[in-house]
Amino acid sequence: MWGGGSKKPQSGPAQEMVQVGTNPIANPKTTTLDKDTNTDRSESSFWRSRSPQSNVSTPHRDGAYRPPADSQTKVVGASYSYTDMLNFENTPSRPRTPTHSKHKSTPSGGSHSPTTAAASYNAFMSQTDDDWGLDLNDTSIPKETTVTGGLGSIASMAGVTSIEGRPLGAKGSKGAGGGYEYPLAKKRTKGLKAQFEGLVRDPGNSLHMIYHPPINTDVHSSAEIEAMNARISRINRFKTVLQSSTVDLTKLRSLAWGGIPDELRPMAWQLLLGYLPANSDRRVTTLERKRKEYLDSAKQAFSRGEAGMDQTIWHQISIDIPRTNPHIPLYGHKTTQRCLEKILYVWAIRHPASGYVQGINDLVTPFWQVFLSAYIEGDVETFDPGSLPPEVLDVVSADCFWCLTKLLDGIQDNYIHSQPGIQRQVSQLRDLVRRIDSGLAKHLNDVQVQFIQFSFRWMNCMLMREFSVKNVIRMWDTYMSEGNSGFSEFHLYVCAAFLVKWSAELKKMDFQEVMMFLQSLPTKEWGEKDIGLLLSEAFMWQSLYRNSSAHLRDDGTTVHNEELNL
Amino acid sequence: MSSRKKVLLKNKNSDYKLKVIILGDSGVGKTSLMNQYVNKKFSASYKATIGADFLTKEVLVDDRLVTMQIWDTAGQERFQSLGVAFYRGADCCVLVYDVNNQKSFETLDSWRDEFLIQASPRDADSFPFVVIGNKIDVDDGKRQVPQKRAMAFCQSKGSLPYFETSAKEAINVEQAFEVIARHALAQEEAEEYSGDFGASTIVDIGADADRDGCAC
């Protein structure tokens, strides 16, 4: 789609046009049309079903813009709810992962049938591979879009001009190792990437902004060169998938399971969560619309000042924001705090069944950090976003809001009254540990440690209190690759793998020691390798025990009394 | 339930293990109080407590070595359904409010009721509560709850001990917890002498004694 100029829309359903390469703001009419047609299939669109206070009107214009065939019952595109994806849930979509050597004897850990994957993939794509606004068979999809893997794709940027009228690639120079340097000139704000305006419009631009330090055999050791080459080839594999005019989400999942390169993570997460349309032609308009919706909601929510706000929710958020990741400088900056409290408040009032619950403030931070990192150079954790242009902050906030919404939509019952989702997960964890490490389960029982006493927080905060944000971000690559069940189900196996890791230590401890130990686990030094191993172990337990017991099967939101008796 | 805990809470190292629960609205300083008492530290940047945190401290009460097992709970109302998992077997309950926050004072009564319902102590009327008004270091102009009013409340609930503290400046924290320890110990002993003959608890005692290998 790069430099493709404007596409002539087809007649009929293709009224929503996407003008690539021109400033989309010049087409307000297009956006309006899109919004209208989009609302047609809103029945199970979580944006709407979960958003009673949404300020988007939803006139039902039946038949106006239906995708053909079986779309009457299916939700098209990123507006799928997680329930729509249930068929996909059992589809193996992650790569075979190395299992810990000590588990090598375990059968069937990590093997998949490619046949079922392909079959379910088609079924899945037919439901999900699009944005909110259009169907998959839309003939306006540009067929000429090239799928160029590799770093040579700079050529495809030749026609793309930055706002300043300077070709983005103009200053790029080929590095010795095939990498190129992107233009660093004309920085507006310290740390802000020069090409931020292109990124604001379409995260796909990030694909052309990856910096590879030139490889120099005089400076770098052979091991370093090997690592650099491995990184480049990994990035290229991602680029091949991400550059496609219609991103193959199954392929993306299988690549992303093992971790996403930092530069590509913002775009990959947004695709995996179904926020960014897989179809590249829909991205600009979809993002514009969703971002506007968020900003309008926020404006409305804060329009009457504090007096017009839900005092209980606002009080809780405003005392929690200063306590969110206080050890990371990024979160001490006022700009971060104002943006995060706005995101949380808007989410809370749009989800009255749960409202704001402590712990959700933790869950927004990986998004904040990852999406912000797309626009800046250097370490995001020490960055002061105060100097960023408001448009960047708006866009990052809106993207955080929608992705947080997507994530929470999959674990809604964790935060509603009495938190049945968490109660169920804790009970499942106990059952699972009984099976995979009966000695540990017996010991915990003997010293009268209840699972809820230590694992409630694991569920409520997605282990974010146990790991650094960086490690959590890596974990989320995998969670998101697990499809809709990543945060609700795969997480359970991660918790189990995490607990049994300390089995030997725990078995020597009494009640007090167990509680103290589990509350400050020695994970400070954990890095990507440790997380990778933990995820692999979790994957193995999931392969072995998923669907193997009625206990561990998700039975909806019903929580039986005996399960509550933890 | 209380008998179950009793067997558990007695161990070889110290004469008694006393279970203390800290309750109160979000942000009144429960975590800070506990950390000031146990670790003699104050930090302005604790994360919000989720579920409950656990800390212990060994203290001498009239020559008896006791271990305080302190549960610092989350203040947000949504977590109240968790109470039963943490409150059971408590020997003392500490109710904390922020003297600069009227609402946190007004909710003390419901925290107390909630505790009594979920912990279901044998004798609700005599169960020891201690009330703490925290953050007295904040300047006087901001104070919303006069001392008189807080004391009247404590009086009306059965002469509950009352302390005004600053976890930040370590004012009165040690004194408050000393009283908490005494009350918890008294409660523990009272339970021991009065409660062991309840028919419903005999099975529990037997089972737990076996597990712990500790004769009661």
How do the strands and helices of this protein lay out in sequence?
The complex is a heterodimer of chains A (566) and B (216).
Chain A: H1 28-38, H2 46-49, H3 86-89, H4 114-128, E1 173-174, E2 180-181, H5 196-201, H6 222-242, H7 249-256, H8 265-272, H9 280-301, H10 311-320, H11 334-350, H12 360-373, H13 390-409, H14 420-436, H15 438-446, H16 451-460, H17 469-481, H18 486-501, H19 503-506, H20 511-519, H21 528-545, H22 561-564
Antiparallel strand pairs in A: 1-2
Helix pairs in contact in A: 1-9, 6-7, 7-17, 9-11, 9-13, 10-11, 11-12, 11-13, 12-13, 12-17, 14-15, 14-16, 14-18, 17-18, 17-21, 18-21
Chain B: H1 2-9, E1 16-23, H2 30-39, E2 52-61, E3 64-73, H3 83-87, E4 92-98, H4 102-106, H5 108-119, E5 129-134, H6 147-156, E6 162-164, H7 173-195, H8 199-212
Parallel strand pairs in B: 1-3, 1-4, 4-5, 5-6
Antiparallel strand pairs in B: 2-3
Describe this structure in words.
The complex is a heterodimer of chains A (566) and B (216). By secondary structure, chain A is mostly helical. Among the domains of chain A are: 79 residues, no CATH class; 133 residues, Cyclin A, domain 1 (Orthogonal Bundle), CATH 1.10.472.80. Helix content of chain A is 46%, strand content 1%. Chain A contains 22 helices and 2 strands. A two-stranded antiparallel sheet of chain A has the order 1-2. In chain A, strand 1 and strand 2 form a beta hairpin. In chain A, helix 6 packs antiparallel against helix 7 and helix 9 packs across helix 11. The longest helix of chain A has 22 residues. The N and C termini of chain A lie far apart (55 Å). Chain B has 216 residues and is of the alpha/beta class. Chain B has one domain: Rossmann fold, CATH 3.40.50. In chain B, 40% of the residues lie in helices and 20% in strands. Chain B has 8 helices and 6 strands; from the N terminus they run H-E-H-E-E-H-E-H-H-E-H-E-H-H. A 6-stranded mixed beta sheet of chain B has the order 2-3-1-4-5-6, sandwiched between helices. In chain B, a hairpin with a 2-residue loop joins strand 2 and strand 3. At the A-B interface, helix 10, helix 16 and helix 20 of A face strand 2 of B.
